[in-house]
Amino acid sequence: MPDASAEYSIDPAQPAEEIGPQEVGTAGMGPWRLAMRRLRRNKVALAFLALFFVIVGACMAAPLYSKYVADIGPNKNNLTGKVERGGKQVDIVTPDGTPVGPGLSNRYLLGADANGRDVAVRLLYGGRNSLFIGFTAALITTLFAVSLGLMAGYSRGVPDTLIRSTFDILWSFPVLLFAIALGTALAIGGLNLGPIHIEGGSLWIPTLVIGLVYIPYLGRPVRGQVLALREREFVQAAEAQGMGTLRIMFGEILPNIASTILVFSTLIIANNILTEAALSFLGAGVQPPNPSWGTLIAQGVDRLVTAPHLAIVPGIAIVLTVLSLNVFGDGLRDALDPRAKLRLR
Amino acid sequence: MKFDRYVPEGGHDVSRLLKAGFAALVLVIASLSIAACGDDGGGGGGGEGKTGGTIKIGHTSMPDYLDPALSFTVDGWQAELQAYPGLLTFPHKSGPEGAEPVPGLAEDMPDISADGKTYRLKLRKNLKFSDGSPIKASDFKKSIERMLAQDSQGASFYTGIVGGEEYLKTKKGGVTGIEPNDQTGEITIKLTEPRGSFTYELAIPFSAIVPGDTPAKNMTKNPPPGAGRYVIRNVRINRGYEMVKNPNFSKSLEGTAVDAGKADKFDVGIYGSEANQVTRITRNELDFMVDNPPADRVADLKAKYEGKRFRQFPTPSTFYFFLNTETPPFDNLKVRQAVNYAIDPDAINRVQGGVIAPQNTFLPQAVPGYKDWPDLYPHDVNKAKQLIKEAGADGDKVTVWGNPESPTKETVEYYADVLNDIGLNAEVKIIAASTYFTTVGDRSTKAQTGWYNWFQDYPHPADYIDVLENPDNVKATGNNNVQYNVKDKELARKINAAAAEPELTDAVKKQWADLDREIQEKAYGAIYGTRKQTTFFSDRMDFENCRGDEYAVGTHDWAEFCLK
Q: Which of B381, B413, B419, B434 has the highest number of chain A CBs within 10 A, making it the mutation to test binding with A?
C-alpha cells in the first residue's frame, strides 16, 4: 500500500497559491461540502457505491432468504435429499459425491456443495461474515493506527521512537504470511489474553488478525502527516492558548487528517475482504463450517471439474465487492483531494 | 495405521501454502482429453514386469515420519516397507499371499516355546546396513529400545516383551526380555504373556533393525540406514524424497522376500492437492498417487481409464468417529449410542465421494474374527434425539476434531451437523493433518470426538481390537485407543486373553467376534464403513503386471511397481 500522506490530504494550512484557483460558485464552502459536491458529480463512483450497497443489503437479508426462500440453514447438510430440476427429482448429492448444479428453483438456486448445503444461502451468509470481518477489522486498524500515529507524530521523542519501531517491525513481515501465522496459531488455540477469551472458531480471530496486521499501513502515513501538521501555525496557536495535548491531537490535528483516514479506510475494507478470503482459503481465517467467501472458494477448488460454480460464484462476489469499494474509494479520494478541483472547472 | 501428514517442528503445512498455486493448475484439467477403457478385475497385477527406471510418486502432504520407529501411516509405511525389513517381513505379493510374515533378516521363522512366551530367531550371516556397516543381533534390541524411548505409537506392540513396559515408562535399564548374541547372531525374545500376533509385529517397520547407535529422535530428515532393497535419501521436508536401490544390499538377502523391487529409483514428491496429482498423472508427469483422487474426478477417471490405468479395490480398513469416554458427554453410554443411531453411512458415503462401503463391525470383512452381526444402530435420528434427552445431554458442548484434507473436513462438518441435529451443541476444530493423530492421541488434549480411520498393519484381529480398543493400551501420549476407555477393566481382560491365544482357531476367532460385538454394544466408537482405495497410474506404468495393489500392508506395494 503506498504512503498516501502526500496524495490524499486536505490540508487547510496549505498556502492558497498551492491549492490553485477556487471552483466557480464555491466561495465560502467548507472542504467537506466541496468534497460532497465533487463526489455527487462522479457518477461511476456513485454507481459502484450503489452496487456495494446492493451486495451488503443482499447479505444482510441472508436469514430471510434462508428461511423463506431456500428453506435451509447455511450449515445444514442434506446429503440424501432430493431437489427438483427440470421437472424431475434429482439427488442433491449423488452416491458418487457429485453435488447438484445451479437451477431455476427456490431451493439450491446456485446448486449444492459436497455436503448438500445450499450454495446460495452459504454465499449470502458467507458475505455477511466476509463483510463483518472487512468492516470490523478496518475499524480496529483505524482506531489503533490513528491513535498511535497521532501519539507518535505529536509527542515525538521516545514515544515516537517506540511506536515507529513497532510499526517498522510489523511492516517488515510479509503481511499475508504474518496473518497466516497468527491466524493458524489462534484458530487452533483461541485467544486467551487476561480476561479476554476468544474461541478458535470465532469470527473475531480473523477479524483481530487482519485488523492488527494492517495497523502500520495506516499508522505510518498518519504519523507522517501529524509530524508535518504539528509545526503549523494553527497548532502553535492552540498551544499558545493553553490547550491540552489530547485536545490539540484530537480537536485540532485529527480533523485535518480525517480525509486521509476516510480514503484509506475504504481501501482497507476492500483489502481486508481480500485478506480474509486468502486466509480462509488457506484455512487460517474463518473456520468451518462457518461460511465466508474465502472458505467457499477453498471448498469449491477441489471440485472445479464437476461443480465449478462452487468456486466461481463466491469469486465473483469478492470481485464485485472489492471492485465497488475500490472504485468508490478512488472517487472519494478524488473528491477529497484539493488538486482534483481542476477537474471540476 | 492411519492416513496422515507431516509438518516439521516450526514448519508450515505446505499444502495450505501451495493450495492457491494448485488451484490454478486444476483449472487446466477441464480442457484435458483422455482415452477411454474397460475393467480387468483382480488384485495386484502380479506379473513379471520390466525392471529399472524411475517411478514418480505423489503424496498430498509429507508422510508423518520417514523414521521406522515412528511412522504409523500408510504414507510412511509404503516407503519404509522397502527400506527397513525386520527379523521377519511380509512377502511382496498382493492379496492374502502377502499377508503372512516370512523370514526377513532372520534365517527362519521364530522357534516359539510351548508356552508361547519365548521366541528364538537367528540373523542371517553377513548382513549389512545400507551404509556398509555390519548388522549385529544387539542392533535389534537397541532398535526396539530406540522405538520405545521415543514413545512411538507402535510401542504397545512391544510392551509385552519382558522389561518393555518398564522401559517405556522409565527409559532406563533396557528391554531385558531381548537377549541378543552378537557372536552367534541369535536373538531370544521373552514375553510376559503369550501373544498370538507377535510374529506379525516382528514384521512391521516398528521392529525394523537400524544401527544400534542411531539417536533416539525423529530421523525423518536423515533416515537411518536399513537393510532393505532400497535406501531413502535426499529428504526435503514438505517437498519430497528419493528412494534408490541399496548399494550395499546384503548378498545373504538375495533371493529372499526382502529382495524385491523392480524400479531403480522412486522420486517421491509432495504435490499439495489430490487434484493436482490427478492432472499430473493424466499428463504422465507423475506415475502414481498415494491418496485417492478427489471425489469429483472419480467418475471421469473411471469412464476413461478403468481397467487400463485406474481401478478401485476394497481395503481392510475401518472408518469411524472416535468417542472419548473420559470426557462428557461421551462418558454416557446413551450419548454414544445416540451418535451411532444418528450417523448415516449412506450420507457419509456421498460426502466421501462414493468410496465408503457401509460397515457396522469394528473388524472389516477380510480380517479373521469378522462376523456379520446385525446392525445394532440402524439410522434413526428420532431415537438418537430421545437418547440425548434421556441422558440429559441436550445442549452439551462438543468439539468435533478433523483435519483440512478432503474428505475428512467435509465428513466432520457433516458429523457436527448431525450432532447439532440430535440436540448437542457441536463445533468443528480443524488442525493440520500432519499432527492430527498425535494431537488426538495425546490424552491431555481431551479431544471429545472426531475423525478416525484404521488400515490394517497385519491381518489379525488384535491389530484392530487390541491396538484401538484395549483399555490397557492407553498411555499419556501416542495413543491409538482414543476412546480412552481405561475404566473398562473387564474389556481389557477379555482382549488380553484373546491376544494371548497363539493360534487363530475358530474358538479364538469367536472370542474376537464377541469382543467386536461388545465394543459395538458399548458404542466406543461410531463405526460407519470401510474404504475403497484407488490405483491410478500414468501411461508409463505397467498396469497389467505391476499394480502392487490390494497389498495386505499399506494398500500398495511399491516394490511391485514397474514401468512398461
A: B413
Q: Is the peptide bond before B502 cis (omega within 30 degrees of 0)?
A: no
User: What residues form DSSP beta bridges with B451?
Assistant: B321
**What pLDDT, on a 0 to 100 scale, did the predictor assign at position B23?**
39
Instruction: Report how far Cα B459 is from the mean position of its chain's Cα atoms.
Output: 12
Strands B54-59 and B265-270: parallel
Phi, psi of A82 (to 5 degrees): -130, 160
**Amino acid letter at A162?**
L
Percent of chain B that is helix, strand, coil (3-state, to 5): 30, 20, 50
Comparing CA positions, the residue from B122, B75, B85 lying closest to residue B259 is B85
Other CB atoms within a 10 A radius of the CB of residue A101 amount to: 17
pTM of the predicted structure, to 2 decimals:
0.80
Do the chains contact at A80 and B344, CB–CB below 8 Å?
yes
- Alpha-carbon gap, residue B254 to B232, rounded angstroms: 19
- B306 interface with A at CB cutoff 8 Å: no
pLDDT tens for residues B375-395?
999 999 999 999 999 999 999
Find the distance separating the first CA and the last CA of chain A, reported in whole Å: 31
Provide ipTM, 2 decimals.
0.80
**3-state helix vs strand vs coil in chain A, percent to 5:** 65, 5, 30
**Cα distances (angstroms) measured from residue B1 to each of A1, A150, B206, B288, B467:** 49, 59, 11, 20, 10
Sign for the CA dihedral angle at B403, B408, B410, B415 comes to: negative
Q: Residue B342 pLDDT > 50, yes or no? A: yes
The residue of chain B nearest to residue A185, with distances taken between CA atoms, is: B431
pLDDT tens digits for B76-132?
999 999 999 999 999 998 888 888 899 999 999 999 999 999 999 999 999 999 999
Where do the H-state alpha helices sit in B185-293?
198-201, 274-282
Q: Residue A305 and residue B297: Cβ atoms within 8 Å?
A: yes
Written as nine digits, the cell of B218 is 525423529
Rounded to an integer, what distance in angstroms lies between the CA atom of residue A117 and that of residue A120?
9
